């Protein structure tokens, strides 16, 4: 009897078809900790370690930009102790920028409304950004006090101000203009958004940029997310037929 040969499963990344820009919603830290009878802070710490590992991996394989959702505009509504803990974790990470970015080619940026962050954190952000200034590798956007809706409002206000000052006409407010005025304006387009931990929503992340991004979900909690999972996500992405509204 003749058997049709099963299509061979693709097992490695095609370097000629990489997502240019990946967004990650680092979700599931709390559940990861709960499953281990640990405090939520242990989940966030483990999530921060995963973040570092995944960013380095993405740089290594040639991804041009990665945006990581570290703290949303809505996360202020969490208990104060958890907010303080997340801020401390971020501060410690930024404080160790010399060590964290040594030997890497990562370009650090922070996207979101920095005005609500403490002076201490803002100083640490400036210092860490300065350290990675001369780098030429992956752009790492840390989304801090970031909300996609806020980002769109901000771009709309930039346009409104420019019209008010007679610098442009309302007709000149185009998709391209707004796109340039998103925090990610000079980044390559977001091709892939990853959300682990089984939730199926965007949660105010990269709303403008996700118009034609491919979405990839998984049940794995973020602290358990490995390089292999990132590889899987990219291989799946490479199988997608991206039509951008065409047939
Ligand atoms: C959502 O998981 C995660 C966050 C709100 C915080 C994400 C932050 C990190 C991974 C740490 C970032 C720090 C650095 C230094 C980059 P959750 O807590 O809502 O998880 P749950 O839904 O399981 O409770």
* Class from secondary-structure proportions: alpha/beta
Gross morphology is globular
Count of extended strands: 6
* Small molecules (ligands, ions, cofactors) in the structure: farnesyl diphosphate
Give, in order, the helices and strands.
EHHEHHEHEHHEEH
Helix content: 40-55%
Looking at CATH, the homologous superfamily of the largest domain is: Decaprenyl diphosphate synthase-like
**Mean of residue pLDDT?**
96
Low-confidence stretches: none
The largest beta-sheet arranges its strands as: 3-4-2-1-5-6
Total count of helical runs of at least 4 residues: 8
How would you sum up this structure in a few lines?
This protein has 247 residues and is of the alpha/beta class. The protein has helices spanning 29-35, 40-61, 80-95, 97-101, 119-131, 148-164, 175-180, 227-239, and strands at residues 21-25, 65-72, 107-111, 139-146, 192-195, 214-217.
């Amino acid at each position: 009897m003749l058997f049709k040969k099963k299509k061979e499963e693709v097992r490695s990344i095609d370097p000629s078809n990489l997502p240019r820009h990946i967004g990650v919603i680092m979700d599931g830290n709390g559940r990861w900790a709960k499953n281990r009878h640990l405090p939520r802070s242990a989940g966030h710490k483990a999530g921060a370690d995963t973040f570092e590992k995944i960013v380095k991996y993405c740089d290594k394989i040639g991804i041009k930009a990665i945006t990581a959702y570290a703290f949303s505009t809505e996360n202020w509504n969490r208990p104060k102790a958890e907010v303080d803990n997340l801020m401390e974790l971020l501060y410690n990470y930024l404080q160790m920028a010399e060590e964290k970015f040594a030997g890497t080619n990562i370009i650090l940026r922070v996207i979101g409304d920095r005005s609500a962050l403490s002076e201490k954190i803002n100083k640490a952000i400036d210092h860490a950004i300065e350290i990675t200034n001369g780098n030429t590798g992956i752009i790492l956007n840390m989304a801090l006090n970031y909300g996609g809706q806020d980002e769109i409002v901000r771009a709309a206000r930039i346009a409104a101000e420019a019209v008010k000052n007679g610098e442009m006409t309302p007709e000149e407010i185009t998709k391209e203009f707004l796109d340039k005025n998103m925090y990610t304006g000079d980044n390559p387009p977001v091709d892939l958004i990853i959300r682990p931990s089984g939730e199926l929503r965007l949660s105010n992340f990269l709303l403008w940029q996700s118009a034609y991004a491919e979405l990839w979900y998984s049940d794995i909690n973020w602290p358990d997310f490995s390089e292999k999972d990132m590889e899987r996500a990219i291989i799946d992405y490479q199988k997608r037929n991206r039509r951008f509204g065409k047939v």
